[in-house]
Amino acid sequence: MEIFFAIFVSCNLRLMTNNIFITYSPISQAEESTALRLQTISNLYGLSVALPYRQLNNTSINFETKNRIDNSTFVVAFCVEGLTEFVKAELDYAISKKKPIIVIYDVAQGETLNFNSNANINEVFVDFNKTDEALHNIADFIRSKIGLTKIKPTQKPNNESGLGVALLGIGLGLLAAWALSKENK
Fold first, then answer.
1. What is the pTM of this model?
2. Using 50, 70 and 90 to split pLDDT, how confident is the model at 4?
3. What are the structural domains, with CATH classification, of the chain?
């Protein structure tokens, strides 16, 4: 019986470390497209990206979205084009569940929520002309929150945290492409 319990816990922990909930502004085509693309890409590499289930004209968080947040290891919020009531409600719920949260802003917008210095929240202001610093910030936060320390050059990286960071790196790249193309118009 103990062996079955250990296998069950091990499988559930593996699933949990591979689950990322991504929220975005429904009025931002760039944020929504990026979230959808990351969801598609994640399936190729054994990750699971959950997106919010939203109903039109209803800004309150529904059961399905709560369930998706509950099953996630951490939450990512794309807030590069501003915040909406949808995103605020989803972040409030994630905070109440003590989920590690990464909020990604465009440094040019500079908009923030008041999180009262919550250690479970990492607000990242991205300069889309140079995303390296933001990606390192995100990587360190993810590693610290899923029970890992900063990886030394001689250590082998953890696959789950590495895959999550790689996926968010792709997301930053997609958002950077959008931001830079917007500037050129």
1. 0.79
2. very low
3. 2-184 (3.40.50.450)
